Amino acid sequence: MFYIIGLGLSDEKDITLRGLEAVRSSSRLYLEAYTSILTVRKERLEEFYGKPLILADRDMVETQSDEILRDAHIQDVSLLVVGDPFGATTHTDILLRARALGIPTRVIHNASIMNAIGACGLQLYNFGQTVSLVFFTDTWRPDSFYDRVRENADLGMHTLVLLDIKVKEQSEENLARGRKIYEPPRYMSILQAVTQLAEVEDARRGGVLVPERTLAVALSRVGGGPDDERIVCGTLAQLREQPPEMFGEPLHSLVIVGRRLHHLEAEKQFSLAWRLGMNEICAETAIS
C-alpha cells in the first residue's frame, strides 16, 4: 500500500490516529520537505514515530517517484506531507503514477492552511480563488495573481495569499554550473509580501490593492497554538509600517479582505485579531 499522509500544520502531534497507524506499519517513510514545513525538526518526528525519515526534496518527488514507490505493491510505503495531501499538485501526480502501476493507494487527510485560515474570523465560504506570491527578483516579477485577486474582489470575496518559501534552492550561477550548492532557506514575511503587492498595484493601477484602503489580515504559524499563532488586521499600508516582530515567526499567510465583509465577520475579526486602528476601514467594508 502506498500512503500519502497529511501531517497537519504545526508539530509531530498533529498527525491523525489513522495516519499514525499507517506510519507505524510502513517499511519506508518519506517526508516531503519543500512545499511547506512544520515548526519542528525531522528528529522530533522520528522520535515520535519511532522510525527514521527519508527527506524527499522536489527533485526526488518529481523525478524519482519510482524509488519512492519501490515495493509499495508488497509492503507499506508512506509519503508524509505537511498540511493536507492535496495541498500541492505534486502529490496528486505521484498518486496517479502509483495507480498507473497498479499499486494500491490510500490518502489520509489532515488540516491545511486552506481550511485553518478560518482562524482569522472570516467565513470560509466567502473566500474566492487562492493565489501564490513568489519572491521577486531583478528579472522575474510575475503578477498574474493580480487578475485572480481582481476577480475575487469583483465578487466581494476574500483572497488567501500563500507566501513563498525557498528550501534547497540553487542560485542561478550554481544551477548553470551544475553545482549542488544550495541557498539558505528563506520564508517570505508579511512585510515582504505587502511591499511586493504595493509594487504590483503601482504598476497595474487597477485599484485592487491600494495600500491605504485595502484591508488585510496577516497570520503566522496558523494552528500552532496561542504561544505561536499570531493574527494582525489592518490596511496594507498599516501592515507595512509595523516592525517585523509584530507578525511572529514564519510561516506567514495573508488574506485580502473582500468588500462583502459581513458584520459578523467584522465582529469576529475584532475579537480574534490584533487590530491596527482600522475601525473606519472595516466599517466601510462591512456592507452586506
TrEMBL record:
Q: In which pathway does it act?
A: Protein modification; peptidyl-diphthamide biosynthesis
Reactions mediated catalytically? 2-[(3S)-amino-3-carboxypropyl]-L-histidyl-[translation elongation factor 2] + 4 S-adenosyl-L-methionine = diphthine methyl ester-[translation elongation factor 2] + 4 S-adenosyl-L-homocysteine + 3 H(+)
Q: Which GO terms describe its biological process?
A: methylation; protein histidyl modification to diphthamide
Q: Which GO terms describe its molecular function?
A: diphthine methyl ester synthase activity
Matching Pfam families, A to Z? Answer: TP_methylase
InterPro entries attached to this UniProt entry: 4pyrrol_Mease (IPR000878), 4pyrrol_Methylase_sf (IPR035996), 4pyrrole_Mease_sub1 (IPR014777), 4pyrrole_Mease_sub2 (IPR014776), Dphthn_synthase (IPR004551)
Q: Does the keyword Transcription apply?
A: no
Q: What is its EC number?
A: 2.1.1.314
Q: Where is the Tetrapyrrole methylase domain?
A: 1-195
Enumerate the residues binding S-adenosyl-L-methionine: L9, D84, G87, S112, I113, L163, V222, H252
NCBIfam families recorded for this chain?
dph5 (TIGR00522)
Q: State the function annotated in the UniProt record.
A: S-adenosyl-L-methionine-dependent methyltransferase that catalyzes four methylations of the modified target histidine residue in translation elongation factor 2 (EF-2), to form an intermediate called diphthine methyl ester. The four successive methylation reactions represent the second step of diphthamide biosynthesis.
Q: Which family does this protein fall into?
A: Belongs to the diphthine synthase family. In the N-terminal section; belongs to the precorrin methyltransferase family.
Protein's UniProt name: diphthine methyl ester synthase
Question: Which species does this protein come from?
Answer: Lactarius akahatsu
